[in-house]
Amino acid sequence: MATTAGRRPVTDRLPTFPWDRLTPHKEAAARHPDGLVDLSVGTPVDPVPERLRAALAAAADSPGYPATYGTPELRAAAAGWLERRHGVLAEPGAVLPSIGSKELVAWLPTLLGLGPGDVVVHPELAYPTYDIGVRLAGATPVPADGLSALGPRRVRLVWINSPANPTGRVLPAAHLRKVVEWARERGAIVASDECYLDLGWDGVQPVSVLHPDVCGGSHEGLLALHSLSKRSNLAGYRAAFVTGDPALVRELLAVRKHAGMIVPAPVQAAMTAALSDDGHAEEQKERYRRRRELLRGALERAGWQITHSEAGLYLWAAHPEHDAWDSVAQLADLGILVAPGDFYGAGGGGHVRVAFTATDERVAAAMVRERRSCWS
Ligand SMILES: Cc1ncc(COP(=O)(O)O)c(C=O)c1O
User: Fold this and answer.
1) Sequence-ordered strand ranges (E) for 194-265
2) How far is the CA of 301 from the centre of ligand 1 (A)?
């Protein structure tokens, strides 16, 4: 179809949706007689906890427009969770709900007024939406892990992601503090995507950018994004929030009010219930812990090397003889689908990302195949 003369569709600025490239392998894996074991996309598969469904249902009669700012109960519950679980003192007034965190990642540069000529730094191996958000704003994405390599360039926004997708790497407080100091000296905003903060393994305790050990007690210039998708199995509800520098959050609120970026009232009620309760999150984490151990053991027995992976929902695995796409193909022959590491940056070409977001039944099916084939 012809495009209106002179118009450049936004899609011209965006890469091919990476997951489309995995489709042939998904089809191959699905032909396995015992069915597909999908360890590719990190989507929750366990039920939404009963008390969260009850909170959603109890708020079903919500005919009026909800507040973009969220209910006072939701903002208090978010601040309460951050203090209780992560030692972060957030002002409830500086909590702003978002429609899942992916939309905020994708629109943050635009909401902050960034555009052509503005540089946004994100990790070299990263969740692809940081790059997409910068492109949507027409700004310049720069993948860089070491900030000193950037030289005197003016940087407007720095994305950090600890625990990281895809590697599961956790940045210690001292490292995060250096990033914050670097950004403050240059007037750059730090946006910290903390959607796996509750999911540290083997005693690892990921730390928020808003923790006093990192930010010195001031949230100036900092934003932390939190998602309930993984912690509380709420990916289907689209439930997340941002907090940090009250002035920046006010700015985001002002734009989002104009733009109608509002979390539905029943979802706000479910989020309030989720953030007020830790029991369901601990139960879910225990399920993931068991699946992680099974999958990690199987991969290691078959000679795969696992790096980082100390938190989050993924094993970052490399086979000694195969690159990422060969590994994807080999595992697809066994009916197991994983994500090639180069989805997350050119440096990921030797790895695959193995999500442990499959049911116990599917993980058990993978174990049977491992015993028969050694997953080579
Ligand atoms: C690093 C990272 N950030 C953000 C998201 C988006 O999460 P959601 O939109 O479900 O809150 C994901 C989802 O997998 C992710 O891995």
Assistant:
1) 222-227, 240-244
2) 30
Q: Which atom of ligand 1 is nearest to the CA of 227?
A: 11
**What's residue 371's pLDDT?**
74
- 251 Cβ neighbours under 8 A, 6+ residues apart: 111, 112
Q: How sure is the predictor about 290, in pLDDT bands with cuts at 50, 70 and 90?
A: very high
- Condensed to tens digits (0 to 9), the pLDDT of residues 79-136 reads 999 999 999 999 999 999 999 999 999 999 999 999 999 999 999 999 999 999 999 9
**H helical segments located in 138-278:** 173-186, 212-215, 246-259, 265-275
Q: Judge contact between 314 and 196, C-beta under 8 A.
A: no
List the one residue out of 336, 313, 342 whose CA is nearest residue 42: 313
For ligand 1, atom 14, which residue shows the shortest CA distance?
42
Q: Which residue has the CA at smallest separation from atom 6 of ligand 1?
A: 102
CA 43 / ligand 1 centre spacing (Å): 10
Predicted TM-score of the model (pTM): 0.96
Distance 1 CA to ligand 1 centre (A): 34
Cα 210 to Cα 242: distance, rounded to the nearest angstrom: 11
Lining ligand 1 with CB less than 6 A are 42, 100-102, 105, 127, 161, 165, 193, 195, 227, 229, 235, 240
